[in-house]
Amino acid sequence: MKPPKFMYCDPDTVEDAIALKSRYGHDSLVLAGGQSLMPMLNMRLANPDVLIDINGISDLKRITRTGEVLEIGAGVRQSELETDAAVADAVPLLGKVVPYIGHIENRHRGTVGGSLAHADAAAELPCAAITLDATVVVQGPSGRREIAARDFFEGFMTNACAPDELVVAVRFPVASAASGSAFVEVARREGDFALAAAAAVAEVGTDGRFTALSIGVAGIAATPVRATVVEEALVGQAATAENIAAAAKRIADRVTAGDDLHATGTYRKHLAATVVKRAVVAAVADAQNRSNGS
Amino acid sequence: MTTTENSPEARYAGDTRTVTLRVNGQEVTREVPTRTTLADFLRDDLDLVSVHLGCEHGVCGCCTVLLDGGSVRSCLMLAVQAQGHEIETVESLSADQNNLHPIQEAFAEEQGLQCGFCTPAMVLRTKEILADGQERTDDEVRHEISGILCRCTGYQNIINAVQNAGRKLRCGGAGGCGSAHDEAKGA
Amino acid sequence: MTTVENEKPRYKYIGSDRKRVEDPRLLVGRGGYIADLKFPGLLHAAILRSPVPHATIRSIDATEALKLPGVVAVVTGEDCKAHMNPCMNFGPSSIPQFPLAVDKVRYVGEAVAAVIAESRYIAEDAVELLEVEFEDLPAVTNPVAAMEPGAALLHDGHGSNIGYERTFEFGDVAGAISGADLVVEDTLHWGRSAGMPMETSGAVARPGLNGVLEIYCNSLNFSYFSFLIAGALKLPSNRLTMNPVPAGGSFGSKFTAHKVPTLAGFLALRTGRPVSYVEDRLDHLMNSDHHASDRYYDAKMGFTSEGIITGLDVDVVDDYGAYMQFGVGTHGNAFSQIVGPYGFRNVKYHLRAVLTNKCQQGAYRGFGSEVHNWVLERLIDKAAVELGLKPEEIRRRNFITNDQFPYKIPGGNVYDSGNYPAVLDKALGMIDLEHWRSEQKRLREEEGRYIGIGLATTQERSVFSATEFWALNDNPDFPLTSSPESATVTIDPAGQFQLLLHCQSMWGNSPETVGTTVLAEEFGIEPETVNVRYADTARALPGTGPGGSRYTVMLAGAVRGASRKLQRKLIDIAAHSLEVAAEDLELVDARVQVKGAPEKSLSLPELASTAYFFALNMPPGMESGLEESYTYDHPYTTLPSADRSDLGVFYPIMGHACHIAVMEVDPDTGTTKFLDYVAVHDAGTMVNPKSLGGHVTGGAAQGLGSTLYEELAYDDEGQFKSSTFMDYLVPTANEVPPFRIGHVETPSPFTEYGIKGGGEGGRMVTPSVVSAAIDDALREYGMRVRELPVKPATIVATVQAAIAESSK
Does domain A7-53 have CATH number 3.10.180.10? Predict the structure, then answer.
C-alpha cells in the first residue's frame, strides 16, 4: 500500500497554490493534513498527476478574532482548536466538537480547511460549520469569495469550490454570551466517523422559551444538514425535555442515508432524533450554566 | 509563471528531493523520492525499524512517531513533508535494551506489551501524554492511548505502564518515589 | 471467598510475576520482525487481488507491467500450475489451492498475479498495469443456497459445494429431548472475524547455497510442516530451510500459515533472486491464510424442571469459504469440550461445511471451540430465564463435580482435572451481584437506565493432539498421532546457558520467559541470564509450535526433560570430581553439592569447564560437552475408534473460566458500556500470573471485538465489505473495559508442574457473557442476541419493534 507517483509541489504562498490549481485543475489534488487523502493515495483510490502540498503556506495558519468574528486559517491544525484559548472563548462549540475528530494523532496533522474541503457528511467540523452559520473563505485567481457554510457542502464529498479555488479560512461568528452549545455523537467506536451526530447552539429567554436555536446533524445524508424543521418547531416554545423530544423526531424525514455495514437507514432515523434531542437538551443546560455562572 | 525556469514543471521537477530534518536529535540529509512516506523513509533509509507498518492507512497507529513533540501517523506523511522538522522514534528514549528509559522500564514492569508491534508507538505516545507532568485517572489514560491499536494486551497493562511511568517521571527517574506512591494508593 | 487452595509444591520462579525476558528488545524497537529483514538485492512482491467473487480467468496481460523500469517478473497461476504442486492441505484433496489462483478466482481478494520489482512502490505501480480478463460466474454466498442442486460449483473436481457432512451422536438425544421438562431452541449465527494481528503475515525467500531455498517467515508451525511446503515447491525436503522470524501477533492467523511463505518461495525460485512478500493490510483482510468461524446453528437443549441438562441437539451449517485447507478442525475443537463444564451425556451434532465464494476459514483463538461455548451458554441462559433460575445457579447444578475427574465426556475426550465451583465462587466473590441486581432495578425505575448482568462458565481446552486434525474423517490420508515439542539446553564452557527452541514460537506469547523460568527453577540460575534462540528447520528437532494453548505446557515438558538429562550429567561429573556417590549429591542454586554438607560443592562454571576441557577429570566413557535435547510428546492422547463413536482423547488438559459482566445498554443508540467485569480462570499451575492475566485480558478484548465490533462481511453478491481498518473495527482502548482478573489453580495430573494452557481462554468466554448482559439489560423488550457481532442497529430495532408491538 504505497502512494503512486505524482509531481510534488509545495508552494509557499496561497497565490502559488492557486496558480498550480488553475494550471492543473482536476489533475491535481491539494494535500492539507493528509488524514483522508494520504490513505486514499496509499490505497491508490486517488491518483493525481500533481499533488499540491499547502502545509508550507504560513498565511493559512493564523487564528484571528476581529470584533464578533473568529477567523481560522485553513491550515490550522485541528488539535490547536482544542487548546487555543481564543477559540474556547469565542466559539465554545468548537472545543466540544474537535475531540471527536479521529484521534489525537490525526488531529495533530489534520487541518480545519482540509476537513471542510473534504466535505465528508459524517465529519464533525462541517457539521459545526453549518450549525454556527460559518462562512468559508475561498480564494481563486480572481481573488477571494465567501460562501455560507450551508451552501458550501454541495453533495457527497463535494464542495462549492471551483477547480482553481482553495479554501483559505473559515469564519465563525462569536457565540453570544447567552447561548449554550453541545455536541453529541454516536459512532461504532470512539474516533470513528459518526453514525449520527448533532451539534446544537441554544439561547433560552428568561421565560424558559427558546429565543434562538441552531442544530446541525452529521452522518444522515449526503451532506451535513441543518435540522431546520426542529429549530422552527422549538423556537418560541418552552425548552422542556418533552418539547425537545417531540420536535427532534421531525429530523427523521431528513435522513436519506441507507443501509451500510455499520448501520441501517431505519436505525439512523431513530439515532438522528436521539442525538438531536440530546444535543439540544445539553445545549440548554449549557446555556443555563453559562448564565448562572456569569 | 510564463518563463520556463519559473514554471511548475521546472520548479517542482524530479521524482526526488533532498530533505534535511532532525531525527532523534541528529540532523540528517537524504535524497528521497517525493512519494516515499515518512514511515518508509525512517525504516528503509534510516534503519529505524521500530516504526512499524500495521495498516498504512492511518488507523492502527503502529507507525506513530513524534513530530515536533506531537504524535502523528508516519504512514500519512510524506518524507519530504518532514523537511526542517524534528522527528523522534522510540530509539530517542533508549536504544539500549540494557539501559531502558523509565517509560520503557515501566512497560517491562507492567508487562504492557506482548508481541511488541504497537509498543514503540505506545511508548512514544506515553512520552507525549506524560509531558505535562500531571497525574491522570486510568480512564483518562485509556482515552489518551485510544489512537493506537494493540491486539495483544487488551490495554489494561499498557494503562498500568503509563501510570507507572508517570510516577517514575514525576519522581525523577527509574527509581521512582519508592513507597510514597504505594502508600497513597493503599490509602 | 471460598477458593480451594490446592496443594502444590512450592516453586521459586514458577508462579511469580517476573518481568518477561522478551521485552527489553521489543521496547527499544528491535523485535526483528519480517519486514525488518534486509538482504542485498532484495526484491519486493505485490499481488493483484481479484475484484470479483467467482470468475474464470480468461487472460492476464503483463506487457505494460513488464515494461515498467524496476519490474523483474510477473508470475501468475499458470506458472503455479506448471511448476508447483498444490499447497499443503488437511481438507479434501479434491479441493486444491495454489498461492495464486489457477484457472479461476473463487473470492474477492484472491491473489491473481504477483509482480516482483525492485521496490514495493514499483511493484504496486506495475500491478495497476496488469490487464486481466475475467468471465464472471454466479457468486455463491449463502451456504444454504450453496447446497441446493444447481448451485454454481466452486470446485468442479469436488462435485458438490458440501465440503464435509456428518452427524455425530453420543448417547440418546431424541430420548433426552423428548423426555425433557423444558426444551429451549434457538437459531444462531456466529459471524466472521479473524485474529487480525497488527503485523500481517510475511516471508522473505532467497536461493541459498547447495540448491537450498531459504525462507524466512513469521508463520508459527513450520518445523511441523516445512516438508509440505517443500512438496508444494517441488523441492526435496532437505533443500528447503525455513528460518524462524518473530511475529507481531498471530492469535491463530499465523498458525500453519503457508500461503505467504509458499508464494515467496515460489517467486524466489522463479526469479532466482531474494524476494520479500509481506501482506499489506488489504491483502491480509481479504486474502490472509484464513478468516475465522462463520456458522449458522439450529440448536436445542433439553432440561429437567430442576434445570438439569438432559441433552443437546446441534445442526450447524458452516459458511466455510472457498477452500478447506484446515479441514473441519474447528469443529474438532468443539468436540473437545462439547458438553462444556456440564455433566450431561447426550449430544448430537450434525455438521455441514459448505463451500462459498469467500476466503477460507482457519484458526482464531479458540479455534471454533469458542463458538460452541457461545451456543451452549446461549441455550442455558434461555433455559435459566424460563425456569426462573439465576445464571450461576443453573450452571452450578450442572457442573461436573470434583470427584469425577479425570472425566470422559460424550465423544471421548477426557477432562483431566477441575474445580468448577471454586472458579464460580471466586468470581462471585470478586463482584457483589446482589448489589448490581438491586442497582439494576433502581436505575431502571429511578433513572430510566438499562443495565444487565451476564455470567458464563466455560471450558478452555488446551494442548491439542494431532489426532484432532483427522478424527472427524473416516479415511484420513495421513492419520498422524504426534504433536511433540523439543528443547535443547546447552551450558557453555563458562557455565552460561543457551536454550534452543525448535519452532518459531514468538508471537507475543512468552516462550522465552517460560523456557527460562523452567531453567531457573531446575538449575537455580536467573532467567534473564539465559540466551534463547530458535532453530531453523535444517536443525530443528520435532516441534509443533504454539497453537491450541499448548506451548507453555509442551515447552515446560521439553525444557524440564532436557534439564533432567543435563542435571544427571552434572551430578555424574561432580560425583567423579568430588569422589562421592551420585545419589549423595543435589543441585541447589546453580551448584552441585553434597547433601547435608553444602560446603562441599562445585559450581556450574567449574563443572562446565571440566565437561569441555578436562576429559581426564570426567567419568570414563562420558561424552565431552554439556548439551542435552529432549522431545516431549503429547502427555495424554488416544486413537479414535474405527466407527468414530469415540473420538479418543485429543484435548485433555482442560482449563475453566467464569466471567461476569455488568453492562449498560442505551436503548436509543444501541451502544453499550461496561460497568464492571470480572474474569476468573483456572489454567492449572501458573508460570507467570501477570503474563497469564495479560493473555486473559487480551483474549477477552478479542472476544469483545467478535461480539460487538469485528466483522469480515461479504454482501449477497460476494463483494467484500470490510477491506480496511475503517470498516473492520478492532477495539481501541476506549471499547475495552478494565477486566478484573482472578485465578484459581487446579494442577493437571498429566503435565509437568501441573501447568495447563491458558492462551485462548479470554476469547472463549467473553462472547457468551456480553451476549447475556445485553439480553438482561433489555429483557423487557425481548432482547435476545442471536447473531454476532451484535450491532447498535440491531439493538435499537429490537427495542423499537417491542415498543411498537406493545402500543398496538
Answer: no
Homologous superfamily, domain B102-174: [2Fe-2S]-binding domain (1.10.150.120)
CA angle at B148 for the pair B145 and B150, rounded to the nearest 5°: 100
The pLDDT-based confidence of A232 (bands split at 50, 70, 90) is: very high
Cβ of residue C722 closer than 8 Å to a chain A Cβ: yes
Residues of chain A found within 8 Å of residue B125, distances taken between Cβ atoms: 105
3-class state of residue C701 by DSSP: helix
Whole-angstrom distance, CA of residue B150 vs CA of residue B138: 17
Interface A:C, Cβ pairs < 8 A? 69
Query: Which grid cell is A180?
Result: 449554550
**Which three cell numbers, joined as nine digits, stand for C170?**
453420543
3-state secondary structure of C449: coil
Query: What is B16-92's CATH superfamily?
Result: Beta-grasp domain (3.10.20.30)
Where b means 16+ CB within 10 Å and e means fewer, C764-786 reads: bbbbbbbbbbbbbbbeebebbbb
Domains belonging to chain C, first-starting first, are 1-30+403-462+651-808 (3.30.365.10), 485-632 (3.30.365.10)
Closest CA to C326 of C279, C284, C359: C359
Q: Hey, what's the cell of C642?
A: 474405527
Q: Look at residue A293 in the predicted model and tell me its pLDDT.
A: 66
**Using a CB-CB distance cutoff of 8 angstroms, which residues of chain C are in contact with residue B113?**
23, 26-27
CA distance C414 to C411: 9
CA dihedral B156, B158, B159, B162 (to 10 degrees): 160
Nearest to C28 by CA among A183, A92, B49: B49
In sequence order, which ranges of chain B are alpha helices (DSSP H)? Answer: 8-11, 38-40, 102-110, 119-130, 138-144, 156-170, 179-186
The backbone torsions φ and ψ at residue C304, rounded to the nearest 5 degrees and listed phi first, read -80, 170
pLDDT digits (tens, 9 = 90+) for A275-289: 999 999 999 999 999
For chain A, domain boundaries:
7-53, 58-173, 180-293
Give the residue on B whose Cα is nearest the Cα of C735: B146
Q: In chain C, positions 276-315, which contact chain B (CB-CB < 8 Å)?
A: 280-281
**What residue ranges do the domains of chain B occupy?**
16-92, 102-174
The torsion region of residue B165 among left (phi > 0), alpha (psi -120 to 50) and beta comes to alpha
Across chain A, mean pLDDT equals: 96
Contacting residues of B for A108, CB less than 8 Å apart? 67, 70-72
Question: Is A58-173 a CATH 3.40.50.300 domain?
Answer: no
> What ipTM, to 2 d.p.?
0.96
Residues of chain C short of pLDDT 70, as ranges, are 1-9
* Residue A109 contacts B, CB cutoff 8 Å: yes
User: In CATH, what class is A180-293?
Assistant: alpha beta
Q: Which member of C128, C724, C731 has the closest CB to residue A189?
A: C731
What is the CA angle C569-C539-C536, rounded to 5? 125
Q: Are C721 and A43 in contact (CB < 8 Å)?
A: no
Q: Which residues of C touch B34 (CB under 8 A)?
A: none
Cβ-count burial of A23 within 10 angstroms (0-12 exposed, 13-18 middle, 19+ buried)? middle
Chain A touching partners, 3 or more CB pairs below 8 A: B, C
What pLDDT score was predicted for residue B174? 52
Shortest distance, CA B154 to any CA of chain C (angstroms)? 4
* Residue A150, C-beta contacts closer than 8 angstroms, at least 6 positions apart: A130, A133, A226
Do the Cβ atoms of B76 and A10 come within 8 Å? Answer: no
CA pair distance C462, C551, nearest whole angstrom: 9
- The Cα–Cα gap between A259 and A255 comes to 11
- Which residues face C244 on adjacent strands? C217
Contact A8 B35 (CB under 8 A): yes
Whether A266 and C711 lie within 8 Å, measured CB to CB = no
